[in-house]
Amino acid sequence: MKKVQMLIDGKMSTALSGETREIRDPGNGEVLALVPESAREDVQRAILAARRAFDEGPWRNTTALDRGKFLFKVADAIRKEAKLLAEIEVRNCGKPLAEAEFDVADAANCFEFYGGLATKIHGETMSVPANSLSFVLREPIGVCGQIIPWNYPLLMASWKLAPALAAGNVCVLKPSELTPLTALELGRILTQLELPAGVVNIVSGPGANAGEELAESPLVDKIAFTGGTATGRKIVLGATSSLKRVSLELGGKNPNIVFEDCDFEAAVDGSLFAAFANQGEVCSAGSRLLVEKSIHARFVQAMLDKIPRIKLGHGLDGGVKMGPLISAAHREKVEQYIRVGVEEGAKLRCGGKRPEGAAFAKGNFLEPTIFDNVIPKMRIAREEIFGPVLSVIPFQNETEAIQIANDTEYGLAAGVWTKNITKGIRVMRAIRAGITWINTYHPTFNELPWGGYKQSGNGRELGLYGIEEYLEVKQVNVNLDEGPLGWY
Ligand code: NAD
Q1: What string of DSSP letters covers 150-166?
Q2: Is 332 a catalytic site residue?
Q3: Which of 79, 243, 440, 460 has the least C-beta neighbours within 10 A?
Q4: Rounded to whole angstroms, how far apart are CA atoms 111 and 97?
Protein backbone atom coordinates (compact mmCIF):
# COMPACT_ATOMS: atom_id res chain seq x y z
CA MET A 1 0.00 0.00 0.00
CA LYS A 2 1.37 3.40 -0.97
CA LYS A 3 2.19 5.48 2.10
CA VAL A 4 2.06 9.22 1.49
CA GLN A 5 3.61 11.80 3.80
CA MET A 6 2.75 15.37 4.66
CA LEU A 7 4.90 18.50 4.47
CA ILE A 8 5.99 19.99 7.80
CA ASP A 9 8.96 22.33 8.25
CA GLY A 10 10.40 21.54 4.84
CA LYS A 11 10.33 17.76 5.25
CA MET A 12 7.90 15.04 4.30
CA SER A 13 6.68 13.58 7.61
CA THR A 14 4.38 11.07 9.22
CA ALA A 15 2.00 11.91 12.07
CA LEU A 16 3.71 11.88 15.48
CA SER A 17 1.34 9.11 16.56
CA GLY A 18 2.15 7.09 13.43
CA GLU A 19 -1.57 6.90 12.69
CA THR A 20 -2.76 6.80 9.10
CA ARG A 21 -6.06 6.96 7.24
CA GLU A 22 -7.05 4.91 4.21
CA ILE A 23 -7.93 7.00 1.19
CA ARG A 24 -10.37 5.29 -1.17
CA ASP A 25 -11.39 5.65 -4.78
CA PRO A 26 -15.11 6.52 -4.59
CA GLY A 27 -15.63 4.89 -8.01
CA ASN A 28 -14.63 1.37 -6.99
CA GLY A 29 -13.78 1.35 -3.27
CA GLU A 30 -10.11 0.58 -3.95
CA VAL A 31 -7.70 1.81 -1.25
CA LEU A 32 -5.43 4.32 -2.98
CA ALA A 33 -3.04 5.31 -0.22
CA LEU A 34 -2.43 5.63 3.49
CA VAL A 35 -1.97 9.22 4.61
CA PRO A 36 -0.90 10.64 7.98
CA GLU A 37 -3.80 11.24 10.33
CA SER A 38 -2.79 14.45 12.09
CA ALA A 39 -3.82 15.25 15.61
CA ARG A 40 -3.52 18.64 17.29
CA GLU A 41 0.17 18.02 18.08
CA ASP A 42 1.03 17.59 14.39
CA VAL A 43 -0.76 20.76 13.43
CA GLN A 44 0.98 22.56 16.30
CA ARG A 45 4.30 21.37 14.92
CA ALA A 46 3.38 22.80 11.50
CA ILE A 47 2.18 26.07 13.03
CA LEU A 48 5.41 26.46 15.02
CA ALA A 49 7.46 25.85 11.86
CA ALA A 50 5.38 28.44 10.00
CA ARG A 51 5.63 30.89 12.90
CA ARG A 52 9.41 30.61 12.89
CA ALA A 53 9.56 30.93 9.12
CA PHE A 54 7.50 34.10 9.28
CA ASP A 55 9.14 35.70 12.30
CA GLU A 56 12.67 34.99 11.10
CA GLY A 57 11.68 36.35 7.71
CA PRO A 58 13.19 34.07 5.05
CA TRP A 59 10.15 34.50 2.85
CA ARG A 60 8.69 37.92 3.57
CA ASN A 61 12.16 39.47 3.24
CA THR A 62 12.70 38.03 -0.22
CA THR A 63 12.00 40.43 -3.05
CA ALA A 64 8.57 40.41 -4.63
CA LEU A 65 10.33 39.48 -7.86
CA ASP A 66 11.82 36.35 -6.29
CA ARG A 67 8.48 35.37 -4.79
CA GLY A 68 6.89 35.83 -8.19
CA LYS A 69 9.56 33.74 -9.88
CA PHE A 70 9.03 31.01 -7.32
CA LEU A 71 5.31 30.90 -8.05
CA PHE A 72 6.07 30.63 -11.78
CA LYS A 73 8.25 27.61 -10.94
CA VAL A 74 5.35 26.03 -9.05
CA ALA A 75 3.13 26.57 -12.10
CA ASP A 76 5.72 24.91 -14.34
CA ALA A 77 6.15 21.99 -11.94
CA ILE A 78 2.37 21.44 -11.81
CA ARG A 79 2.26 21.45 -15.61
CA LYS A 80 5.12 18.92 -15.79
CA GLU A 81 3.21 16.57 -13.50
CA ALA A 82 -0.24 17.43 -14.88
CA LYS A 83 -1.02 13.93 -16.11
CA LEU A 84 -0.21 12.33 -12.76
CA LEU A 85 -2.03 15.02 -10.78
CA ALA A 86 -5.17 14.76 -12.92
CA GLU A 87 -5.23 11.00 -12.59
CA ILE A 88 -4.85 11.18 -8.80
CA GLU A 89 -7.62 13.80 -8.65
CA VAL A 90 -9.96 11.52 -10.63
CA ARG A 91 -9.21 8.51 -8.44
CA ASN A 92 -9.52 10.43 -5.19
CA CYS A 93 -12.52 12.69 -5.98
CA GLY A 94 -14.43 10.65 -8.55
CA LYS A 95 -14.61 13.43 -11.12
CA PRO A 96 -14.40 12.78 -14.87
CA LEU A 97 -10.88 13.04 -16.30
CA ALA A 98 -11.66 16.03 -18.54
CA GLU A 99 -12.78 18.01 -15.48
CA ALA A 100 -9.69 17.00 -13.48
CA GLU A 101 -7.42 18.01 -16.38
CA PHE A 102 -9.13 21.38 -16.45
CA ASP A 103 -8.65 21.77 -12.66
CA VAL A 104 -4.94 20.97 -12.85
CA ALA A 105 -4.36 23.40 -15.72
CA ASP A 106 -6.28 26.08 -13.85
CA ALA A 107 -4.27 25.42 -10.66
CA ALA A 108 -1.04 26.08 -12.60
CA ASN A 109 -2.59 29.23 -14.11
CA CYS A 110 -3.53 30.42 -10.61
CA PHE A 111 0.09 30.19 -9.42
CA GLU A 112 1.15 32.04 -12.55
CA PHE A 113 -1.45 34.77 -12.07
CA TYR A 114 -0.30 35.45 -8.51
CA GLY A 115 3.35 35.09 -9.55
CA GLY A 116 2.75 38.06 -11.84
CA LEU A 117 0.83 39.94 -9.17
CA ALA A 118 3.58 39.58 -6.54
CA THR A 119 5.47 42.51 -8.07
CA LYS A 120 2.39 44.72 -8.33
CA ILE A 121 1.53 45.09 -4.65
CA HIS A 122 1.67 48.84 -4.18
CA GLY A 123 1.03 51.20 -1.30
CA GLU A 124 0.08 54.90 -1.33
CA THR A 125 1.72 58.16 -0.35
CA MET A 126 0.03 61.28 1.04
CA SER A 127 1.21 64.62 2.39
CA VAL A 128 -1.43 65.28 5.00
CA PRO A 129 -0.72 67.30 7.09
CA ALA A 130 1.78 69.42 5.20
CA ASN A 131 4.66 68.74 7.58
CA SER A 132 4.29 64.98 7.29
CA LEU A 133 5.15 62.62 4.54
CA SER A 134 2.75 59.77 5.11
CA PHE A 135 2.63 56.50 3.31
CA VAL A 136 0.74 53.27 3.43
CA LEU A 137 2.56 49.95 3.37
CA ARG A 138 0.88 46.69 2.54
CA GLU A 139 2.45 43.85 4.46
CA PRO A 140 1.85 40.12 4.80
CA ILE A 141 -0.49 39.09 7.62
CA GLY A 142 1.76 36.30 8.89
CA VAL A 143 0.88 32.66 9.51
CA CYS A 144 -2.18 31.70 7.46
CA GLY A 145 -4.19 28.61 8.34
CA GLN A 146 -5.99 27.38 5.23
CA ILE A 147 -8.70 24.73 5.25
CA ILE A 148 -10.18 23.35 2.03
CA PRO A 149 -13.02 20.98 1.02
CA TRP A 150 -13.01 17.74 -0.95
CA ASN A 151 -14.57 18.75 -4.25
CA TYR A 152 -11.68 20.65 -5.93
CA PRO A 153 -8.63 19.74 -3.80
CA LEU A 154 -5.71 20.89 -5.98
CA LEU A 155 -7.56 23.94 -7.28
CA MET A 156 -8.66 25.07 -3.81
CA ALA A 157 -5.11 24.53 -2.49
CA SER A 158 -3.83 26.76 -5.30
CA TRP A 159 -6.47 29.46 -4.71
CA LYS A 160 -5.28 29.58 -1.11
CA LEU A 161 -1.50 29.15 -1.35
CA ALA A 162 -0.74 31.29 -4.41
CA PRO A 163 -2.07 34.68 -3.21
CA ALA A 164 -0.84 34.09 0.35
CA LEU A 165 2.71 33.35 -0.83
CA ALA A 166 2.73 36.18 -3.37
CA ALA A 167 1.96 38.57 -0.52
CA GLY A 168 4.82 37.19 1.63
CA ASN A 169 2.80 35.09 4.08
CA VAL A 170 3.56 31.58 5.29
CA CYS A 171 0.94 28.83 5.27
CA VAL A 172 -0.38 25.76 7.00
CA LEU A 173 -2.85 24.16 4.59
CA LYS A 174 -5.21 21.35 5.58
CA PRO A 175 -6.94 19.51 2.77
CA SER A 176 -10.10 17.50 3.39
CA GLU A 177 -9.55 14.16 5.10
CA LEU A 178 -11.42 12.58 2.16
CA THR A 179 -9.26 14.00 -0.64
CA PRO A 180 -5.76 14.92 0.58
CA LEU A 181 -3.76 13.26 -2.21
CA THR A 182 -3.13 16.04 -4.74
CA ALA A 183 -2.43 18.59 -1.99
CA LEU A 184 0.15 16.19 -0.53
CA GLU A 185 1.62 15.70 -4.02
CA LEU A 186 1.89 19.48 -4.23
CA GLY A 187 3.78 19.34 -0.92
CA ARG A 188 6.22 16.87 -2.45
CA ILE A 189 6.61 19.12 -5.51
CA LEU A 190 7.35 22.11 -3.27
CA THR A 191 10.18 20.25 -1.52
CA GLN A 192 11.92 20.04 -4.91
CA LEU A 193 11.74 23.79 -5.48
CA GLU A 194 13.96 25.23 -2.76
CA LEU A 195 11.40 26.92 -0.59
CA PRO A 196 12.70 27.87 2.88
CA ALA A 197 11.57 25.35 5.53
CA GLY A 198 8.26 26.13 7.19
CA VAL A 199 6.98 28.56 4.53
CA VAL A 200 4.42 26.04 3.31
CA ASN A 201 3.20 23.20 5.49
CA ILE A 202 0.54 20.78 4.27
CA VAL A 203 -1.05 18.66 6.99
CA SER A 204 -3.55 15.87 6.38
CA GLY A 205 -6.16 15.11 9.00
CA PRO A 206 -9.76 15.52 10.07
CA GLY A 207 -11.70 18.70 10.79
CA ALA A 208 -12.03 17.75 14.45
CA ASN A 209 -8.77 18.51 16.26
CA ALA A 210 -6.53 19.06 13.21
CA GLY A 211 -8.79 21.67 11.59
CA GLU A 212 -9.93 23.07 14.92
CA GLU A 213 -6.34 23.65 16.01
CA LEU A 214 -5.73 25.84 12.97
CA ALA A 215 -8.82 27.92 13.67
CA GLU A 216 -8.13 28.23 17.40
CA SER A 217 -4.34 28.61 17.67
CA PRO A 218 -3.21 32.05 18.85
CA LEU A 219 -0.06 31.55 16.76
CA VAL A 220 -2.10 31.66 13.56
CA ASP A 221 -2.80 35.19 12.29
CA LYS A 222 -5.42 34.39 9.70
CA ILE A 223 -7.72 31.55 8.81
CA ALA A 224 -9.00 31.10 5.25
CA PHE A 225 -11.72 28.50 4.99
CA THR A 226 -13.64 26.92 2.13
CA GLY A 227 -16.35 24.44 3.01
CA GLY A 228 -19.88 24.14 4.33
CA THR A 229 -21.71 27.02 5.95
CA ALA A 230 -22.23 25.10 9.21
CA THR A 231 -18.48 24.41 9.45
CA GLY A 232 -17.81 28.06 8.61
CA ARG A 233 -19.75 29.06 11.72
CA LYS A 234 -17.57 26.75 13.84
CA ILE A 235 -14.43 28.25 12.29
CA VAL A 236 -15.61 31.74 13.24
CA LEU A 237 -16.28 30.59 16.81
CA GLY A 238 -12.88 28.88 17.02
CA ALA A 239 -11.15 32.02 15.75
CA THR A 240 -12.92 34.29 18.22
CA SER A 241 -10.58 33.89 21.19
CA SER A 242 -7.57 35.11 19.18
CA LEU A 243 -9.62 37.46 16.96
CA LYS A 244 -7.61 36.35 13.97
CA ARG A 245 -8.52 37.46 10.46
CA VAL A 246 -11.15 35.16 8.93
CA SER A 247 -12.21 34.72 5.33
CA LEU A 248 -14.89 32.24 4.33
CA GLU A 249 -16.01 30.63 1.07
CA LEU A 250 -19.15 28.69 1.93
CA GLY A 251 -22.12 26.93 0.39
CA GLY A 252 -24.78 27.98 -2.08
CA LYS A 253 -28.27 27.19 -3.38
CA ASN A 254 -27.82 29.02 -6.59
CA PRO A 255 -30.62 30.21 -8.88
CA ASN A 256 -30.27 29.71 -12.61
CA ILE A 257 -33.05 31.69 -14.34
CA VAL A 258 -34.29 30.85 -17.82
CA PHE A 259 -36.54 33.37 -19.60
CA GLU A 260 -38.75 32.48 -22.56
CA ASP A 261 -36.63 34.72 -24.83
CA CYS A 262 -33.45 32.67 -24.26
CA ASP A 263 -31.43 30.77 -26.85
CA PHE A 264 -33.37 27.59 -26.06
CA GLU A 265 -30.75 24.97 -26.96
CA ALA A 266 -27.93 26.87 -25.26
CA ALA A 267 -30.01 27.30 -22.12
CA VAL A 268 -30.95 23.60 -21.98
CA ASP A 269 -27.34 22.57 -22.40
CA GLY A 270 -26.04 25.21 -19.98
CA SER A 271 -28.63 24.40 -17.30
CA LEU A 272 -27.68 20.71 -17.32
CA PHE A 273 -24.01 21.64 -17.06
CA ALA A 274 -24.82 24.10 -14.26
CA ALA A 275 -26.52 21.37 -12.25
CA PHE A 276 -24.52 18.24 -13.02
CA ALA A 277 -20.88 19.20 -13.63
CA ASN A 278 -18.68 17.49 -11.03
CA GLN A 279 -21.72 15.37 -10.01
CA GLY A 280 -23.38 18.54 -8.71
CA GLU A 281 -20.75 18.63 -5.97
CA VAL A 282 -20.01 22.27 -6.69
CA CYS A 283 -20.63 25.21 -4.35
CA SER A 284 -21.74 27.34 -7.30
CA ALA A 285 -23.92 24.64 -8.93
CA GLY A 286 -27.10 25.96 -10.52
CA SER A 287 -29.18 23.69 -8.31
CA ARG A 288 -32.37 25.80 -8.46
CA LEU A 289 -33.54 26.12 -12.04
CA LEU A 290 -36.15 28.85 -12.41
CA VAL A 291 -37.97 28.52 -15.76
CA GLU A 292 -40.55 30.94 -17.17
CA LYS A 293 -43.95 29.23 -17.25
CA SER A 294 -44.53 29.81 -20.97
CA ILE A 295 -41.61 27.48 -21.90
CA HIS A 296 -41.45 25.41 -18.74
CA ALA A 297 -42.90 22.08 -19.96
CA ARG A 298 -40.96 22.15 -23.24
CA PHE A 299 -37.75 23.10 -21.43
CA VAL A 300 -37.96 20.30 -18.88
CA GLN A 301 -38.72 17.79 -21.64
CA ALA A 302 -35.68 18.99 -23.62
CA MET A 303 -33.49 18.46 -20.55
CA LEU A 304 -34.93 14.97 -20.00
CA ASP A 305 -34.18 14.13 -23.64
CA LYS A 306 -30.53 14.99 -23.05
CA ILE A 307 -30.09 13.23 -19.71
CA PRO A 308 -29.08 9.88 -21.33
CA ARG A 309 -26.03 11.68 -22.71
CA ILE A 310 -24.70 12.09 -19.17
CA LYS A 311 -22.73 8.86 -19.11
CA LEU A 312 -22.06 7.59 -15.60
CA GLY A 313 -18.91 5.69 -14.74
CA HIS A 314 -15.43 5.81 -13.29
CA GLY A 315 -13.84 9.13 -14.18
CA LEU A 316 -10.94 7.44 -15.99
CA ASP A 317 -13.25 5.52 -18.36
CA GLY A 318 -13.73 7.00 -21.81
CA GLY A 319 -16.72 9.25 -22.43
CA VAL A 320 -17.77 9.43 -18.78
CA LYS A 321 -19.54 12.68 -17.94
CA MET A 322 -20.50 11.96 -14.34
CA GLY A 323 -18.54 10.06 -11.71
CA PRO A 324 -19.46 8.69 -8.29
CA LEU A 325 -20.27 10.82 -5.25
CA ILE A 326 -17.43 11.36 -2.83
CA SER A 327 -18.46 8.79 -0.19
CA ALA A 328 -21.14 6.30 0.72
CA ALA A 329 -22.23 8.59 3.56
CA HIS A 330 -22.58 11.56 1.22
CA ARG A 331 -24.62 9.51 -1.27
CA GLU A 332 -26.95 8.53 1.56
CA LYS A 333 -27.35 12.18 2.49
CA VAL A 334 -28.24 13.06 -1.10
CA GLU A 335 -30.67 10.12 -1.29
CA GLN A 336 -32.31 11.33 1.90
CA TYR A 337 -32.94 14.67 0.17
CA ILE A 338 -34.48 12.80 -2.77
CA ARG A 339 -36.90 11.08 -0.35
CA VAL A 340 -37.68 14.47 1.19
CA GLY A 341 -38.41 15.92 -2.26
CA VAL A 342 -40.85 13.11 -3.06
CA GLU A 343 -42.56 13.48 0.35
CA GLU A 344 -42.83 17.25 -0.13
CA GLY A 345 -44.75 16.63 -3.35
CA ALA A 346 -42.20 17.64 -5.98
CA LYS A 347 -42.44 15.66 -9.20
CA LEU A 348 -39.49 13.29 -9.74
CA ARG A 349 -38.91 13.37 -13.50
CA CYS A 350 -35.69 11.33 -13.75
CA GLY A 351 -33.04 9.63 -11.66
CA GLY A 352 -33.46 9.41 -7.92
CA LYS A 353 -31.80 6.02 -7.73
CA ARG A 354 -28.50 4.19 -8.01
CA PRO A 355 -27.60 2.94 -11.50
CA GLU A 356 -27.78 -0.81 -11.95
CA GLY A 357 -25.01 -3.07 -13.21
CA ALA A 358 -21.70 -4.56 -12.16
CA ALA A 359 -19.76 -1.45 -13.26
CA PHE A 360 -21.50 0.58 -10.56
CA ALA A 361 -21.64 -1.97 -7.75
CA LYS A 362 -18.57 -0.84 -5.82
CA GLY A 363 -18.83 2.93 -6.36
CA ASN A 364 -21.04 5.62 -4.84
CA PHE A 365 -22.97 6.28 -8.04
CA LEU A 366 -26.29 8.07 -8.26
CA GLU A 367 -28.27 8.92 -11.37
CA PRO A 368 -28.72 12.57 -12.35
CA THR A 369 -32.00 13.57 -10.78
CA ILE A 370 -34.52 16.23 -11.81
CA PHE A 371 -37.44 17.33 -9.65
CA ASP A 372 -40.10 19.42 -11.38
CA ASN A 373 -42.86 21.65 -9.97
CA VAL A 374 -40.74 22.47 -6.96
CA ILE A 375 -42.15 25.15 -4.66
CA PRO A 376 -39.68 27.65 -3.16
CA LYS A 377 -40.56 26.70 0.42
CA MET A 378 -39.62 23.03 -0.07
CA ARG A 379 -36.42 21.87 1.57
CA ILE A 380 -35.03 20.70 -1.79
CA ALA A 381 -35.35 24.32 -2.95
CA ARG A 382 -33.74 25.79 0.15
CA GLU A 383 -30.98 23.50 1.40
CA GLU A 384 -27.68 22.76 -0.30
CA ILE A 385 -27.83 19.11 -1.41
CA PHE A 386 -24.36 19.10 -3.00
CA GLY A 387 -25.13 16.29 -5.41
CA PRO A 388 -26.74 15.60 -8.81
CA VAL A 389 -30.22 16.82 -7.85
CA LEU A 390 -31.86 19.66 -9.76
CA SER A 391 -34.97 21.46 -8.49
CA VAL A 392 -37.02 23.09 -11.26
CA ILE A 393 -39.22 26.00 -10.14
CA PRO A 394 -41.60 27.58 -12.68
CA PHE A 395 -42.12 31.38 -12.49
CA GLN A 396 -44.62 33.81 -13.99
CA ASN A 397 -42.63 36.98 -14.69
CA GLU A 398 -39.36 38.83 -14.05
CA THR A 399 -40.42 40.24 -10.69
CA GLU A 400 -41.35 36.81 -9.39
CA ALA A 401 -38.10 35.30 -10.73
CA ILE A 402 -36.02 37.86 -8.83
CA GLN A 403 -38.07 37.36 -5.67
CA ILE A 404 -37.62 33.56 -5.78
CA ALA A 405 -33.93 33.86 -6.67
CA ASN A 406 -33.24 36.06 -3.65
CA ASP A 407 -35.41 34.03 -1.26
CA THR A 408 -32.43 32.17 0.24
CA GLU A 409 -29.94 32.56 3.06
CA TYR A 410 -27.18 31.99 0.49
CA GLY A 411 -25.73 34.39 -2.06
CA LEU A 412 -22.93 32.64 -3.89
CA ALA A 413 -23.76 32.35 -7.61
CA ALA A 414 -26.55 32.93 -10.14
CA GLY A 415 -27.25 32.53 -13.86
CA VAL A 416 -29.65 34.23 -16.27
CA TRP A 417 -30.54 33.14 -19.80
CA THR A 418 -32.15 35.71 -22.11
CA LYS A 419 -31.39 37.24 -25.53
CA ASN A 420 -32.49 40.59 -24.10
CA ILE A 421 -29.19 41.76 -22.62
CA THR A 422 -30.80 44.79 -20.96
CA LYS A 423 -33.13 42.46 -19.08
CA GLY A 424 -30.24 40.11 -18.28
CA ILE A 425 -28.23 42.89 -16.69
CA ARG A 426 -31.27 44.33 -14.90
CA VAL A 427 -32.06 40.94 -13.36
CA MET A 428 -28.43 40.28 -12.44
CA ARG A 429 -28.16 43.61 -10.67
CA ALA A 430 -31.21 42.72 -8.59
CA ILE A 431 -29.77 39.38 -7.48
CA ARG A 432 -27.80 39.23 -4.24
CA ALA A 433 -24.93 36.95 -5.25
CA GLY A 434 -21.18 37.34 -5.76
CA ILE A 435 -20.59 35.24 -8.90
CA THR A 436 -23.00 35.64 -11.81
CA TRP A 437 -23.30 34.58 -15.43
CA ILE A 438 -25.49 35.74 -18.30
CA ASN A 439 -26.04 33.19 -21.10
CA THR A 440 -23.46 30.81 -19.67
CA TYR A 441 -22.83 29.03 -16.38
CA HIS A 442 -19.70 27.99 -14.47
CA PRO A 443 -16.73 29.55 -16.28
CA THR A 444 -14.31 30.70 -13.59
CA PHE A 445 -11.40 33.04 -14.15
CA ASN A 446 -8.32 33.50 -11.97
CA GLU A 447 -8.51 37.22 -12.80
CA LEU A 448 -11.96 37.76 -11.26
CA PRO A 449 -13.08 37.82 -7.60
CA TRP A 450 -14.78 34.68 -6.28
CA GLY A 451 -16.99 34.72 -3.21
CA GLY A 452 -20.44 35.07 -1.79
CA TYR A 453 -22.99 37.50 -0.41
CA LYS A 454 -25.04 36.70 2.70
CA GLN A 455 -24.29 33.33 4.32
CA SER A 456 -22.19 32.14 1.38
CA GLY A 457 -19.11 33.73 2.83
CA ASN A 458 -16.94 36.59 3.77
CA GLY A 459 -14.18 38.06 1.61
CA ARG A 460 -13.09 37.17 -1.91
CA GLU A 461 -10.59 34.83 -3.49
CA LEU A 462 -8.90 35.21 -6.88
CA GLY A 463 -8.19 38.31 -8.90
CA LEU A 464 -6.78 41.49 -7.42
CA TYR A 465 -9.29 41.17 -4.59
CA GLY A 466 -7.90 37.78 -3.54
CA ILE A 467 -4.53 39.16 -2.57
CA GLU A 468 -6.12 41.84 -0.37
CA GLU A 469 -7.27 39.03 1.94
CA TYR A 470 -3.61 38.29 2.68
CA LEU A 471 -2.36 41.82 3.32
CA GLU A 472 -2.27 44.06 6.34
CA VAL A 473 -2.21 47.83 5.85
CA LYS A 474 0.22 49.98 7.82
CA GLN A 475 0.47 53.77 7.90
CA VAL A 476 3.91 55.36 8.28
CA ASN A 477 4.21 59.07 9.11
CA VAL A 478 7.52 60.84 8.62
CA ASN A 479 7.79 64.20 10.38
CA LEU A 480 9.30 66.79 8.06
CA ASP A 481 9.58 69.46 10.78
CA GLU A 482 12.89 69.66 12.58
CA GLY A 483 13.21 70.24 16.35
CA PRO A 484 10.89 69.37 19.24
CA LEU A 485 7.10 69.49 19.05
CA GLY A 486 6.97 72.19 21.75
CA TRP A 487 3.70 70.93 23.31
CA TYR A 488 5.03 70.93 26.90
P1 NAD B 1 -16.85 20.72 5.23
O2 NAD B 1 -17.28 22.01 5.79
O3 NAD B 1 -17.41 19.47 5.80
O4 NAD B 1 -15.27 20.55 5.32
C5 NAD B 1 -14.40 21.48 4.75
C6 NAD B 1 -13.06 21.40 5.45
O7 NAD B 1 -13.23 21.80 6.81
C8 NAD B 1 -12.43 20.02 5.50
O9 NAD B 1 -11.04 20.14 5.32
C10 NAD B 1 -12.75 19.54 6.92
O11 NAD B 1 -11.82 18.61 7.41
C12 NAD B 1 -12.67 20.84 7.68
N13 NAD B 1 -13.43 20.90 8.93
C14 NAD B 1 -14.57 20.24 9.23
N15 NAD B 1 -14.98 20.58 10.48
C16 NAD B 1 -14.07 21.46 10.96
C17 NAD B 1 -13.94 22.18 12.18
N18 NAD B 1 -14.83 22.06 13.17
N19 NAD B 1 -12.89 23.01 12.33
C20 NAD B 1 -11.99 23.16 11.35
N21 NAD B 1 -12.05 22.50 10.18
C22 NAD B 1 -13.10 21.67 9.97
O23 NAD B 1 -17.13 20.83 3.67
P24 NAD B 1 -16.95 19.70 2.58
O25 NAD B 1 -18.03 18.69 2.80
O26 NAD B 1 -15.53 19.26 2.53
O27 NAD B 1 -17.23 20.54 1.25
C28 NAD B 1 -18.48 20.84 0.80
C29 NAD B 1 -18.88 22.25 1.15
O30 NAD B 1 -17.89 23.17 0.70
C31 NAD B 1 -20.16 22.66 0.48
O32 NAD B 1 -20.99 23.32 1.38
C33 NAD B 1 -19.68 23.62 -0.61
O34 NAD B 1 -20.65 24.54 -1.01
C35 NAD B 1 -18.52 24.26 0.04
N36 NAD B 1 -17.61 24.82 -0.97
C37 NAD B 1 -17.58 26.18 -1.14
C38 NAD B 1 -16.77 26.74 -2.11
C39 NAD B 1 -16.73 28.22 -2.34
O40 NAD B 1 -15.84 28.67 -3.05
N41 NAD B 1 -17.64 29.00 -1.80
C42 NAD B 1 -15.97 25.90 -2.92
C43 NAD B 1 -16.03 24.52 -2.71
C44 NAD B 1 -16.86 23.99 -1.73
Answers
A1: SSSHHHHHHHHHHHHHH
A2: no
A3: 243
A4: 21
